[in-house]
User: What shape does this take?
Amino acid sequence: MDNASDIRIKESALVERIKAAGKLAVAFSGGVDSTYLLYKAHEVLGEDVIAVTVKSQVLTNEEFSLTSDFCDKIGVKQTVISFDVFSVEEFAANPPDRCYYCKRKIFENVGNAAEEYVVADGSNVDDDGDYRPGMRALKELGIVSPLKEAGLTKNDIRLLSKEAGLPTWDKPAAACLASRFAYGERITAEGLIRVANAEKFIRDLGFTGIRVRVHGGIARIEVSKTDISSLASEPMREKITMELKRLGFKYVTLDLTGYRTGSMNEVLK
Assistant: This one.
C-alpha cells in the first residue's frame, strides 16, 4: 500500500471516531496536532464541537492569542479555563512524573467545563515513543485521542494540515515550558518567564525548533544541527549570550548534539 492510500485510510478512521463521539470537546493548545483535530472535528460535527483552552503559566500569551484567532477564523466556540499550575505541588517540585499530576488536574478541569461532551486530546502515534507520564492521567480520566486511535503519525498530521491549508502544518514541535527544567529542580513562575523570553529572543533572530534547557543557573541551548554553526558564530553568539545573561542565566551553553525532543528524559534511560 502506498503512503497516499495509507493516509486516506487513517483519515477515514479519524472521521469515524469523531462521528462516534457525537459531541466533542477538543483540548486546544494551538499546536500542530490539536489544531488539525479541531479543524477536522468542526468539519465533521459542526456546532457539536468546542475548543477548550487552558490558560496557565506554561502557555505564553503569544500562543494563547493564536488559539483564539484560529477559533474565530473557523467559527468554533472556545471555552477558556484559567488554571494556576502552581496549585499542583508536584508541578513545582518537578519530579520525573510531574506531567502526570499536572495533566490529571488540568483535564479534570476540562471535563468539568465540558460535561456534555466527550473530551479529546491531540496525542498521536509518535507520542508513544517517549517517556510521557501524562498519558496515564488521560487513560484514568477516559480522555480519547482520536488522532492516535486512527493511527496518525506527526508527519501524517503535517501532510493533512498542509492539504487543508492550516497555518500550523510546518509549525515547530511545541512542548510545555516545564519540560525545559531538569527533573528535581524547582519550577518557579519567574523561571518559566525567563525561559519563554529566552526562546522568543532566539526565535526572533531567525532560529526555529529551539529549546533553552535549564540546569540551575545554566542555559543549555538546543538548535537543529544545521543551525549550530550559525548560532555559535559572531556576532550571533555574543548577542545571545548577553541577552540570556541579562535575563538571569549565569552561564550560557550550546548543546553540540543539537535539538531533539524529550532530551531531559535521557537521564531516565
User: Anything to note?
Assistant: The longest strand covers residues 49-55. The chain has two domains: 3-164, 177-268. The longest helix spans residues 3-21. The radius of gyration is 19 Å.
